[in-house]
């Protein structure tokens, strides 16, 4: 497997094995064992008491030893989604934001458009891998899945579909294995207050 995060700084120089190990170790030195997570459900038909996808995200995170610091629910309204997402990103106890809902192609699916402008950096590999993993379950219907991710003010943000199956797949196959590393990398640039 290619490690795209590892930088090859050799320009004709040879690097000893111990130097290589040190660089690789330094790359993971900021990894976080546990993170504080915010969950944002986007739905015009659900409530926090009736939010199976939000509950699934909470359960997956807590089972992996992470802390859910807040859960919120907003209607399918682009301005409101963006305002709440921005507020959650700005909280000092939120290391990662995971949203669920509003990623389809109906006119009221506006989460991607609302959250995307907050990104300082896009993480296109997340959406690509999510769709690849989803294809086994839903086949060619995966073309309507607009799951995406990015980093906003040092906080990784994952935008997942609204189904329980989709959030469990996204968390188990991609987010949980990488969350500590991504948070560590995103916060390394001076966002240590998150």
From TrEMBL:
<dbReference type="InterPro" id="IPR001453">
    <property type="entry name" value="MoaB/Mog_dom"/>
</dbReference>
<dbReference type="GO" id="GO:0006777">
    <property type="term" value="P:Mo-molybdopterin cofactor biosynthetic process"/>
</dbReference>
<dbReference type="GO" id="GO:0005829">
    <property type="term" value="C:cytosol"/>
</dbReference>
<protein>
    <submittedName>
        <fullName>Molybdenum cofactor biosynthesis protein MoaB</fullName>
    </submittedName>
</protein>
<comment type="similarity">
    <text>Belongs to the MoaB/Mog family.</text>
</comment>
<dbReference type="InterPro" id="IPR008284">
    <property type="entry name" value="MoCF_biosynth_CS"/>
</dbReference>
<dbReference type="InterPro" id="IPR036425">
    <property type="entry name" value="MoaB/Mog-like_dom_sf"/>
</dbReference>
<feature type="region of interest" description="Disordered">
    <location>
        <begin position="1"/>
        <end position="33"/>
    </location>
</feature>
<dbReference type="InterPro" id="IPR012245">
    <property type="entry name" value="MoaB"/>
</dbReference>
<feature type="compositionally biased region" description="Basic and acidic residues">
    <location>
        <begin position="1"/>
        <end position="14"/>
    </location>
</feature>
<feature type="domain" description="MoaB/Mog">
    <location>
        <begin position="38"/>
        <end position="182"/>
    </location>
</feature>
<dbReference type="Pfam" id="PF00994">
    <property type="entry name" value="MoCF_biosynth"/>
</dbReference>
<feature type="compositionally biased region" description="Basic and acidic residues">
    <location>
        <begin position="21"/>
        <end position="33"/>
    </location>
</feature>
<keyword id="KW-0501">Molybdenum cofactor biosynthesis</keyword>
């Amino acid at each position: 497997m290619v490690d795209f995060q590892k930088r090859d700084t050799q320009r004709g120089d040879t690097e000893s094995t111990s130097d290589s190990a040190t660089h690789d170790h330094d790359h993971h030195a900021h990894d976080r064992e546990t993170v504080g997570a915010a969950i944002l459900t986007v739905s015009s038909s659900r409530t926090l008491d009736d939010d199976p996808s939000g509950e699934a995200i909470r359960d997956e995170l807590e089972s992996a030893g992470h802390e859910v610091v807040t859960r919120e629910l907003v209607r399918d309204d682009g301005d409101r989604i963006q305002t709440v997402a921005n507020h959650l990103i700005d909280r000092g106890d939120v290391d990662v934001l995971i949203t669920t809902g509003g990623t389809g192609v109906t006119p009221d699916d506006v989460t991607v458009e609302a959250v995307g402008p907050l990104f300082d950096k896009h993480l296109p590999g997340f959406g690509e891998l999510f769709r690849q993993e989803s294809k086994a379950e839903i086949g060619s219907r995966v073309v309507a899945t607009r799951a995406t991710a990015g980093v906003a003010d040092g906080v990784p943000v994952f935008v997942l579909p609204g189904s329980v199956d989709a959030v469990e797949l996204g968390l188990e196959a991609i987010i949980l294995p990488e969350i500590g590393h991504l948070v560590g990398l995103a916060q390394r640039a001076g966002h240590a207050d998150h």
